[in-house]
Amino acid sequence: DAGVIQSPRHEVTEMGQEVTLRCKPISGHNSLFWYRQTMMRGLELLIYFNNNVPIDDSGMPEDRFSAKMPNASFSTLKIQPSEPRDSAVYFCASSSPSGHNTEAFFGQGTRLTVV
Amino acid sequence: QQQVKQSPQSLIVQKGGISIINCAYENTAFDYFPWYQQFPGKGPALLIAIRPDVSEKKEGRFTISFNKSAKQFSLHIMDSQPGDSATYFCAAIGMGGLTFGKGTHLIIQP
Fold first, then answer.
1. What are A37's strand-pairing partners?
2. In this predicted model, what pLDDT tens digit does every residue of B32-62 receive, in sequence order?
3. How far is B26 from chain A (nearest CA, A)?
4. Is B43 on the interface with A (CB under 8 A)?
5. Are residues B98 and A104, on separate chains, in Cβ contact within 8 Å?
6. Average pLDDT of the residues in B10-19
7. Does the first or last residue of chain B, that is N or C, have fewer Cβ atoms within 10 Å of its Cβ?
8. Are B51 and B62 in contact (CB under 8 A)?
9. How many contiguous H segments (helices) and E segments (strands) does chain A have?
């Protein structure tokens, strides 16, 4: 398996534009996580899906952020409208269905810059 | 509320020395405690993990010490090498998934 695949690797956009980040989890994994990483706040959990259903979205900063998982092999994180303070590295991770005490595998991340 | 507190924020250790990173948690529902290692431009990767019914776990040069009563755990890197230079995150797992500490930027000087 190629691991968790995220696209794009880098995104530069203007303030006010819509941004969509994409994630393909590892085949067979049923849990998917979106994280945001900044120097100031570290790694923050934004939202967590289990079997394609959002379980905990309390980390989503505001209504400008939305996430979907239409099927087991694809998830998106959308920011509309984007703001400079959204600039960060966004990671997607997935884990297997053998209980929650399992390793989460991370993608390479998407570095988002909003100017 | 920060559920997992990690210190120090940055650490410089001489080659061959012992690197020690500490974490404390608040939620007693956490039941699995992994450490992740992250190199620049990469996502975090699992390094070593421990369950709360074990006080210590060792894998090669990496050891986790766990104190359940104090709700603290630490990572020790013995004989630290320049290749260990990275950012280290402690984490705790409960029903809501992984919660990370803020990370420790470790530099091993040759």
1. A43, A89
2. 899 999 998 899 999 999 998 999 999 999 9
3. 17
4. yes
5. yes
6. 98
7. N
8. no
9. 0, 11
CA of A39, closest CA in chain B: separation in Å? 9
How long is chain B? 110
From the centroid of its chain, how far is CA A92? 4
Q: Cα B7 to the chain's mean position, in Å? A: 10
Q: Are B7 and B102 in contact (CB under 8 A)?
A: no
pLDDT at residue A87, as a whole number = 97
Both tokens assigned to B58: 């060792």
Could you report the per-residue pLDDT of A12-37, keeping only the tens digit for each?
999 999 999 999 999 999 889 999 99
SS3 content of chain A, % helix, strand, coil (to 5): 5, 55, 45
Per CB-CB distance under 8 Å, the chain A contacts of B102 are 41-43
Contact state of A106 with B45 under an 8 Å Cβ cutoff: yes
Check: CB of residue A96 under 8 Å from CB of residue A74.
Answer: no
Rounded to an integer, what distance in angstroms lies between the CA atom of residue B19 and that of residue B13? 6
Q: What is the pLDDT of residue B67?
A: 95
